[in-house]
Amino acid sequence: MSEDANRRSMTRRTRDFTVLLGTTGTVLLLLVATSALGPVEAISALGVIASVGVAYFVGSAARVPQGISDTRAEPAAAPQAEAGPGLLAALALPALEIGPGQKIMAFNRAAEDLFQLANLPFARASAVIRSPVLLAAIDQALERPAAGPVSAEIETGPDETWRAHVSRIPDGRHVLVLMEDLTPVKRAARARADFLANASHELRTPLTAISGFIETMRGPARDDAAAWPRFLDIMAGESDRMSRLIADLLSLSRIESSEHVLPRGRENLAEIVSACLAVLEPIAGEQGAALKVAGASTGLPEMTAHRDELIQVVENLVSNAVKYSKSGSTITLSFGAAPSLAEARLAASQQWDVSQRMTLLQALARSQGAEPAVWLRVEDQGPGIEREHLPRLGERFYRADQSRGGKITGTGLGLAIVKHIMAHHRGGLAVETLMGQGSAFGVWMPTGRE
Ligand SMILES: Nc1ncnc2c1ncn2[C@@H]1O[C@H](COP(=O)(O)OP(=O)(O)O)[C@@H](O)[C@H]1O
Ligand SMILES: [Mg+2]
Predict the structure, then answer these.
(1) Which CATH number fits domain 185-255: 1.10.443.10, 3.90.550.10, 1.10.287.130, 1.20.1250.20?
(2) How far is Cα of residue 161 from the mean position of the Cα atoms in its chain?
(3) CB-CB contact of 393 with 385 (8 Å)
(4) Over the stretch 204-259, which tens digit does the pLDDT of each residue have?
(5) 442 lines ligand 1 (CB under 6 A)
(6) Whose CA is nearest to atom 24 of ligand 1?
């Protein structure tokens, strides 16, 4: 690089020198031609100027010594055969550079954590990598470069899977091991499989009951007409349960499939709550529960939301409160606006002094600064929820009262739907509960931009 700069500087100086000599020569020639100057004077003047020029040439050449580069010149970049620690450090994934003899030549921070390399630089790969599959892949890449990149899947824990990509670094004798975390992918696949198994099980239970009663009515109870109304009632109840389940499954899958479509509408929470009340008041009345609303009906900021989804949130939370409370109790629905997500969370889910609390979904703040938010809280005077159930609320099909031997029917999908919808709105969900006194579910979300 400095050689190049020097060459450029020489060319510039040679050009300057030539121009200087040329111009003075021409001027002197003109002066001689017009007899303003004698030839002797002209030659000596040219000599003087030439020596000044030579002095300039030599002097400026001395100012750019070999090896000191021009400021415009870029730092030297020697061709690098191996990945080098700089490149590895920039990689977000765990990466190791391994040389002949399986020696670890370089690694980045992420690899240090994954393989616990802190005190083992230059160790052999086999000292830190326990997976025989990965070691074999490294060996293959080191010994048979022509074979191309290899990848290996390794289990690093009971619920932790990584894929290692092992490839030869071009023009070198080292290999690069790049680790990719497959845990979330595996977890999602397992959740999907569990979900299908659960859903089919939940659907089969009422179906089994219905077909059982059909058999009874066809067989042993064929002539027992007096018993039929009871059988039919049970069958109607079971088929209701099936249709509720299917409705919940459908709405869950609808929400999931629109997950990447951001909510667009501008909605008002007070208006959504009052629309829900029209549907919920009769349901509460049937159960002998009173619905109380505490929230300003005007002055609430609009929020970017999917109207139907938020209606489902309110309906699910209120119908749980009604369902799990004794008759004669009051369910209080409060809502409001807050200058930040954190404050909205407090208002929605931290109102009781001594309660058990659990945040089931954390709102995602988009910026560092405070984002205006709205919140909603549904409070009941029901039995409360035991502490050990709290973390699992919002999991599909999880029903706390099932283990209590409760008779209240449900799908265990309501809170999962609520959680999904709130995630879709970048919002949060939390519960607080006091055994024997009641539970409160709170949701909050940013109002979003116009
Ligand atoms: N307000 C509440 N009071 C007591 N328990 C509740 C309340 N809301 C929800 N739960 C518990 O959380 C579980 C999950 O609720 P949800 O997902 O709506 O399912 P479902 O209502 O169909 O059972 C319920 O089965 C119940 O045990
Ligand atoms: Mg429910």
Answers:
(1) 1.10.287.130
(2) 19
(3) yes
(4) 989 999 999 999 999 999 999 899 999 999 999 999 999 999 999 999 999 988 88
(5) no
(6) 399
